[in-house]
Design a protein that fits this description.
about 10% helix; mainly beta; 5-stranded mixed beta sheet
Amino acid sequence: MIYKCSRCMYYVHPDCATQRIEPFMSIFLPGKTKKNFQDDDHPDLLRLPVDDESHILSHQFKGEASEQFRDPFLHSDPFVLIHDKINKYATTSLHDPMKRIKLLCNICSKPITKMPFYKCSTNDDFVLHDWCTRLPDVLRGHSAHPEHPLGFSRLKYTGSTAKCRICGLPCNGSYYRCIEDNYRIDVNCAFMPKEITHEAHADHLLTRIESSRSGVSKKECHACRVSIGESETYFKCNACDFYLDCRCALQLPKTIMHKFDKHPLQLSYAPIEDHKSQYFCEVCEEELDPGKWFYHCVECAQSVHSACAPLILQSEQGVNSFYLEGVYKFINIKFGSVEKRPFHQHPVSLAPGTENDGLCHECGSKLQSEMIWKCLHCNFACHCYHELTSLISAYNAPRLIYRLGENKRVIKQHRPQTSLEFYPNEMKRPETRHWKVDDDIQ
């Protein structure tokens, strides 16, 4: 026997429904708990989720934009401050999923949704958030790696990535690196706050717990319902059993705009009241579990997996996998770079692999859900790591390769594959195997 809500798809065991302890009530009855902190005692408290996709750095590095700034990339070409839509760079457009326009910062890889921002005078795709230009050169005594200083760094090779040791996600923007032991963290995790509040659990403070300080053996992220590993950083409510992994806590904005819906989609924490049908994702068309956080439009009754939300371009459909729930696994990767590489006669573009890309021309394995070089003129495509492999022999340099490997995070349930139809082509949801990073390469 179970209890069922007559107005939404909410089910609960009788024993769970009759609990009177605060953990149960605080999670399922938001607004009914007693606030356990004073706002005056936390003037700089980050209140999540943020309104848009500009991410948390904008709240931590405030200041007036100047026409000149220290160029962290040592570009010879000047950067121009874009502070108005009316300027000599008439082609400048902000990040706009409704128009399928991507404008991502080259430092943090997050969308540029506001002005002002900086733009390279000779490369329209090289853009920087105003606040990202104010990041420090060196971090000393960082809580994640206090024994050594961490220096501001960037990857020298476009097709390579660095794995963040805090969130576990790959990035190809800037990061902080220890020269002693090659410890790396991306710029977003480098400034992770010690305390936050979240709308899903608004009355209680959530405290950051470092992986080495974890004392609870079994923890489950309340957003994605995935077990939190012993080596992961997460946020915990000290008053009750409420946990969020750092990805779901910091990477999911309050609202998103998507091509599939003319209205903003709101981050939802529970089943929608009076929802008339089964839930499924408008992007991947797979079934959606309303017990996990998702994005929803009440007016159109449309829903999107939180991990599918960033997939705004048709070429990206079918990239994500069931092996990383909550956030898009390439959320810190800026794709779209077009270069002439020595392994192919035509220009190639850095892209996330889909089923339509077929098999790798180098090794013959699938390109789905991998970072690939894709030709703009013919059907050539290959894994990015093949060129990195060749660079080892030529330059004896360290490398960073993504490969298939053992799954680190256990997902409770896998959905069957179904045939999907996206405009203008047909494709399938990718059956992605597990992947990991080898840290012995760059």
